[in-house]
Amino acid sequence: MRRSTYFHKLIVYAICLITFPMVTLGVFSYLLSSRTVQQKVNDGALQMLLQMQQRVEQSLRTADNALTQFTVQPSVLRLLTEDVTDGSRSDNAALIDGLQEGLRGIQLSDLRVADVQFIQLRDRWKMSGGGYEPFGPLEPDWKQMYGDRPGSYWTISSRTIDFVRTLPISSPEPTAMIMFRVPYGELRKYMFTHPELGEPFIIDDSLRVVAHTDHWTRVGTSAASMPYARQLLDSESDSGLFKTQLDGEPYNVIYSKSAYNGWMYVSLVSVTAMTRESETIKWVTVAAGAVFLLIGAAVSLLGARRLYGPVRKLYESVFQPANGEAGSGGDIPASGKDELQLIGERVQAQLHNQKEMSRELKSQRSRLQHFFLLKLYLGQTDGSERAPYEAEASRQWKAMSVLVLQIDSLENTGYAEQDKELLLFAVTNIIAEIVPQHERLLEPIVMGQSQVTLVGSPLADEQAYSAWLDGAAKLIRETVKQYLRLPVSIGVSSPFRSLSEAGRGYKEAGEALQYRIKLGLEAVVHIGDVQPDRSLVPEYPEKVKSELIEAVRMCEGERAYGLLEQFTRELFAAPLSHRQYQMLMIALLTDLLRVLQEYEGVLQSLYEEEKSLYDKLFELKTSAEMTEWLYQSVLMPAIRLMEERKNKQHRGITDELLRMIENEYDSPLTIESCAFRIHYHPDYVRHVFRKEMGMPFSDYLAQFRLQMAKSWLTGTDMRIADIAEKLQYTNAQNFIRYFRKMEGMTPGQYRDSRGAGAQGSL
């Protein structure tokens, strides 16, 4: 006999209900205490780091101020401008002695100084603790080492931390410098030594270690290879904290940047060491949880027994009659399911069977009605099939009509072409909601790319019925627009009284939709309003077409667009059928393509297949779409290509004329002779040159010759008369008169003002 699984679940659930809050509370307490300890240690380390920074910078500033006071003394300033290398002069010796005495008297507060040096870069001597000393052959190049950074700054040498100040301070080319050296170990006395607050050290802006508790091995080395170096350099805040890994262990990097000298004060705090104090809380929580778990298990066992009794009785009442064995109700099938699940499955099975039967009946009825409507709209039903619905329609309605809805366009709607079928079904559901059941025959259906609905009304008055029908169609259109953001048009058939005429109504409504070509998108089109007068002969706007073709030939894009709009307005103003509209637009496209064939290669380079253009034109639904497509896809690409070719031709003509002017400016050139040589009409060449160069041919030739005359006047000793003759002037006076007009002086005055060439005479 298998024991109850539901009984076991009750016990487990009760234990979890008691244990989970304790475990959650313990974990939360441990995490909170660990975070609090880390926050306190980080705050303490940052405060110690800021105190260390304040003490170090106070000592450095004291040293900086001492040097500042020393360098502004008159005796030091004299050493920047006077040469004292001649020791035989008493005043030089006095300056040297005064300098040495001043260096010895510099007080640097609590910093121990290894050496103070005054280095004269210009006269090549120095003064240190050893006295005056000229530069020797082994003297380092002080100017190269420190002179390229004028001003004052701190730097690191092999054994000392050096403060350097070039003199004069503001000069980009210093003549002297003063430097004092502080041993590495001097800054160590400012470092705090609290292991729990981390390992402090100081680095400069190039990541070299300036000070460290282990100054013998770490000071002067580079910290650039450390994993936290890049984060220190990239940090934009003056102080802060970030996490890193060192040798697989987590560390907090606490830092503070100095605005005084760019040094960074850093402390590495071990996260592992910080969290040791919170371990006690963790083990206390574990012990408390274990005790509560034992107590909860005992209480859960007692409570589960009392709760399980009624469930066991219900299970036996459900399953015992099914197997007919009076004594077997206590056995639970070995299926891994408890008593409540087995009872639930039995009830769900019964409900499922009932729902399946109801759904199957409804589905079969819906399919039969859909099939009947398809046959009705296609005119394939007989009287016996229509009889049940005909009697109901005759009793309720005085007139009926068919509504055919189609989606106008998916452009700018967010839908794709593959969504169209789903959208039509969504539209069907909307119509079923907003058109009451008593105003339509059965359900709306989808046929191909259309949604079809048969509606009826008890209104006998023709005008009242027409107004009701128009209102219903517009309500459908606006509702679809509101909920689906979808533009649709609806075709409306003429009224009929018998269902046998539903096939004719379906055809009429579809035919009405074709007149969107004239009325535009999102239209409600009644077939009675758009049926054309068959006796009218379509009139083709020949005059506007001719002007349009002329605008295309002249590459006038804006004018072509305006004439194209005028053409479509005049064409669609006539009451024609949609087929006549399409054929007249096809005629216009044919005329345009015939014109483009006159320009060699234009049509072939733009359109590989003329057939695709005609197919596209047939797909467009409205006059506005046709106008925009013809302009964007046919006219503008052709105009742009024709303009490019025309501009290339104009550039070639202009380049040829410019070459003639440059090579033959001293010959009798005219626009007529040049046009004859390149085989173009003079008027055309004159127009092209003026358009490309912005001035007439004769003006450009005269200016070019003027420039040649100016170059000869300044670069040669040619006589003015010879220059005038060479530049095709009939006499020197005409040349002088033109030159004075353009330059404001005579050629001779121009030559004299430039001071070049011989004084040529007339």
TrEMBL record:
SMART domains: HTH_ARAC. Residues 655-753 form the HTH araC/xylS-type domain. PROSITE patterns: HTH_ARAC_FAMILY_1 (PS00041), HTH_ARAC_FAMILY_2 (PS01124). The keyword Transcription regulation applies. It holds the Pfam family GGDEF_2. The chain crosses the membrane at residues 12-32, 283-304. GO terms for molecular function: DNA-binding transcription factor activity; sequence-specific DNA binding. Keywords: DNA-binding, Membrane, Transcription, Transcription regulation, Transmembrane, Transmembrane helix. PANTHER family: ARAC-FAMILY TRANSCRIPTIONAL REGULATOR, REGULATORY PROTEIN POCR. This is HTH-type transcriptional regulator YesS.
